[in-house]
């Protein structure tokens, strides 16, 4: 760290704290200001905040580990979420904004009724705040500890404690306004640092073509290292056992199951919070669209190219440690400061978001709803700030007991994987009730946890064949059987509650007599929305692959993917253009 590096880091931290102090008074006015910025965010700010929050300190580390250990194709573990993300853009973003909720959990009592809805709201609020968000925070903290240990050679516990104090201070002070404003700078810094390190890596190895050739030669996987799609082992098929533990099976689970089965299938808490904070329905849609384009087509390639370079330069390094090692060895003065500041920004943007969201769950959906309903807004903001500190301490304790970022990430995917289809269907099918959602949540948590315990502690040798993909698929199947049975064994939601929901949100789908009783003209345009969803998915994924092929010196294939991306973009643009500049039509 040269003097210029310390100046860059200090300037960033000063900016973050200044933002916290600037917005402290505004955030303290009401829970609406503290949690959703008074529903006044423009699309570009809300969308960029979504991207910055998903770009945590752990992301480059875990992606590097996947590329080194499994090849580029393992990124389908998260690329597959683009399909669900575009579904949220065209079919759900406007509905979430119409619902006018503070958190996604609050929808429980808008969609369902009576005691079951209240129980579900409180249970899901606690579930999302404590195990889900705290595990997410834990892997972010763990990543920062690894970075600081490698880059600055200081005790990781001390360095992370300092980062946490700074993050909590400005997140607690400024609420959601501070989160989204600092996210804008954090995204710019993070991308600048990642691109800078990528340029140095490519230059060090002699250019893009040389980088690819040297990485394939150095990796035990050979050419498979840079394939975008996995291939089945030679001479095997679905009837051979080897096929079911090969990367091709993992790919099938990711692309055909995971995107609709996970907890973020209808947006997820982080994205929904920003949809709800947008100015109107159109800003909600455009924010989510920008997020999906930037998240998949723009972000990953600098990390992937650096990971390929690390295979050549540091083949002996453990997967998740490769990225910080590349920074330490290759970053020049100035770039090192930008990299440290970018990781601080990525760390803080994710931590502040999840602290704010966890506080929203506990205060809005548990404390205010079930314990104390008549307090002042200032009281609820104070409780939110205290709760944020508590969540940070709990997440830190989880991180202390963990050693793998990817392990926590993959476990959480399985733990929450059985609820996604219920979350989608509740918008389109009147028969889904509170017990459907509650049973899916409990079943997926119990099945996934049980399988990991059996594999890791009870029968580690006998269950050695049981991969993370098997666990995810079994969890989804078991949870689906449970919630479908529970749905038809319990009473439907009262018609008057369904009618009120239909009038407010005007959803598409199978609403039958509910739609007729509402007196509202059923929305048109479902076919157009589905077409835009498919075109948007093609656009984002093809753009992602086009960028990758050009960067990996395969311009012919890059042109093919670019053509597909352009075709999808034209369909999406015509749809948005046809809907004008006012509130987005279709519902």
The termini sit apart by 55 Å
Sequence of secondary-structure elements: HHHHHHHHHHHHHHHHHHHHHHHHH
How is the biggest beta sheet arranged? none
Q: CATH superfamily membership of the domain at 1-229 and 279-403, which one? A: Sodium/glucose cotransporter
CATH architecture of the domain at 1-229 and 279-403: Up-down Bundle
Strand content: under 5%
Average pLDDT metric: 85
The secondary-structure class comes to mainly alpha
- Under CATH at level 1, the class of the domain at 1-229 and 279-403 stands as Mainly Alpha
Please work out how many helical segments DSSP would assign.
25
Shape: globular
Number of strands: 0
Which value, in Å, is the CA radius of gyration? Answer: 23 Å
Helix content: over 70%
User: Which stretches are poorly predicted, pLDDT < 50 over at least 5 residues?
Assistant: 581-587
CATH topology of the domain at 1-229 and 279-403: Sodium/glucose cotransporter
Descriptive account of the structure:
The protein is mainly α. It has a domain at 1-229 and 279-403: Sodium/glucose cotransporter, CATH 1.20.1730. It contains 25 helices and no strands. The chain has helices spanning 3-27, 31-36, 43-54, 58-70, 76-79, 81-99, 107-111, 114-151, 156-204, 208-218, 247-261, 269-277, 281-298, 300-313, 322-330, 335-371, 377-400, 405-415, 420-428, 434-458, 468-489, 495-505, 512-518, 526-551, 555-578. α6 packs across α24 (526-551) and α11 (247-261) runs parallel beside α21 (468-489). The chain is globular and about 70 Å long. Mean pLDDT is 85; it is low at 581-587.
């Amino acid at each position: 760290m040269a003097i210029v590096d310390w100046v860059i880091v200090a300037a960033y931290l000063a900016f973050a704290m200044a933002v916290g102090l600037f917005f402290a008074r505004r955030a303290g006015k009401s829970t609406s200001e503290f949690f959703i910025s008074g529903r006044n965010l423009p699309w570009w700010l809300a969308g960029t905040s979504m991207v910055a929050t998903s770009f945590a300190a752990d992301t480059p580390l875990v992606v590097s580990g996947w590329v080194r250990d499994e090849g580029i194709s393992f990124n389908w573990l998260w690329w597959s979420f683009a399909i669900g993300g575009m579904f949220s853009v065209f079919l759900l973003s406007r509905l979430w904004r119409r619902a006018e909720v503070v958190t996604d959990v609050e929808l429980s009592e808008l969609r369902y009724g009576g005691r079951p809805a209240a129980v579900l709201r409180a249970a899901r609020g606690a579930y999302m705040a404590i195990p889900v968000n705290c595990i997410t925070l834990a892997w972010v903290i763990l990543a920062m500890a690894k970075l600081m240990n490698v880059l600055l050679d200081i005790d990781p516990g001390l360095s992370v404690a300092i980062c946490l104090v700074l993050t909590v201070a400005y997140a607690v002070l400024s609420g959601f306004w501070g989160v989204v404003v600092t996210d804008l700078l954090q995204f710019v810094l993070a991308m600048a640092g990642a691109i800078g390190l990528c340029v140095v890596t490519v230059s060090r190895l002699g250019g893009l073509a040389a980088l690819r050739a040297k990485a394939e030669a150095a990796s035990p996987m050979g050419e498979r290292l840079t394939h975008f799609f996995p291939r089945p082992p030679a001479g095997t098929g679905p009837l051979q056992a080897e096929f079911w533990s090969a990367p091709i099976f993992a790919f099938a689970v990711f692309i055909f199951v995971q995107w609709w089965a996970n907890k973020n299938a209808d947006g997820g808490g982080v994205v929904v919070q920003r949809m709800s904070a947008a100015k109107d329905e159109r800003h909600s849609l455009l924010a989510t669209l920008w997020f999906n384009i930037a998240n998949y087509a723009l972000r990953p390639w600098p990390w992937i190219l650096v990971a390929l370079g690390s295979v050549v330069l540091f083949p002996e390094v453990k997967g998740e440690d490769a990225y910080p090692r590349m920074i330490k060895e290759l970053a020049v003065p100035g770039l090192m400061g930008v990299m440290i500041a970018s990781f601080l920004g990525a760390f803080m943007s994710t931590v502040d978001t999840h602290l704010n969201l966890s506080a929203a769950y506990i205060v809005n959906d548990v404390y205010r709803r079930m314990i104390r309903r008549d307090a002042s807004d200032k009281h609820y903001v104070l409780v939110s700030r205290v709760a944020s500190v508590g969540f940070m301490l709990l997440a830190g304790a989880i991180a202390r007991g963990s050693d793998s970022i990817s392990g926590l990430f993959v476990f959480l995917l399985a733990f929450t994987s059985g609820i996604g289809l219920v979350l989608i269907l509740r918008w389109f099918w009147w028969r889904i009730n509170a017990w459907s959602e509650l049973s899916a949540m409990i079943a997926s948590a119990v099945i996934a946890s049980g399988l990991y315990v059996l594999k890791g502690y009870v029968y580690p040798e006998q269950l050695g064949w049981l991969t993370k993909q098997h666990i995810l698929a079994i969890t989804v199947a078991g949870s689906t059987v449970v919630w479908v049975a529970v749905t038809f064994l319990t009473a439907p939601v009262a018609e008057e509650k369904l009618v009120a929901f239909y009038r407010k949100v005007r959803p598409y789908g199978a609403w039958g007599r509910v739609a007729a009783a509402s007196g509202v003209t059923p929305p048109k345009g479902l076919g157009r929305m589905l077409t835009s969803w498919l075109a948007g998915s093609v656009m984002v994924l093809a753009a992602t692959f086009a960028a990758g092929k050009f960067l990996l010196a395969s311009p012919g294939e890059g042109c093919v993917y670019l053509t597909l991306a352009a075709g999808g973009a034209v369909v999406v643009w015509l749809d948005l253009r046809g809907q004008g500049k006012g509130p987005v039509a279709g519902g």
